[in-house]
Amino acid sequence: MAFDEHWTTERHFWLDGPEFHHSHMAEAACMVLPAPVGILSGSAITETLTGAPRWAEVDFQDQAETVSADTVVLAYKATGQREGSDPYTAYCSSTYVRGKGGWELLSHQQTPA
Fold first, then answer.
1. pLDDT grade for 2, boundaries at 50, 70 and 90
2. How far is residue 60's CA from residue 94's CA, in Å, rounded to a whole number?
3. Could you list the residue range(s) of the whole structural domain that residue 108 is in?
4. Which candidate, 53, 30, 51, places its Cα nearest to that of 110?
């Protein structure tokens, strides 16, 4: 997975629906999101996303990544916008691991900025 591909995939996690999440996440994936959502793992991630409003747009800043043979960690500041809502800004990190079908999201964390 090349640098741009990492960030393209990350952007899809923000903008696309539960189908994308389900097909690109590790089975044991974990997400740590601001309240009231909190900590989600496994199938609870896609279940929670079903019917949830999607982001209309997202911008990444201060992007950094660490890459090893089987792991990629992305760190960045994101500003997302949903229709009819104020912008949301958070410091984020995502960890991808090489799975049987390619790169899979193992962990994602957001801290409101």
1. low
2. 13
3. 3-112
4. 30
How does pLDDT run across 59-86, given as a tens digit for each residue? Answer: 999 999 999 999 999 999 999 999 999 9
Distance (Å, whole) CA 56 – CA 44: 23
Q: How many domains does the chain have?
A: 1
| pLDDT score of 100 more than 90 | no
CA-CA distance, 18 to 88, in Å (whole number)? 20
Burial class (CB in 10 A: 0-12, 13-18, 19+), 94: buried
Token couple for 54:
């999607």
CATH number for the domain harbouring residue 75: 3.10.450.50
Structure tokens at 22: 């389900």
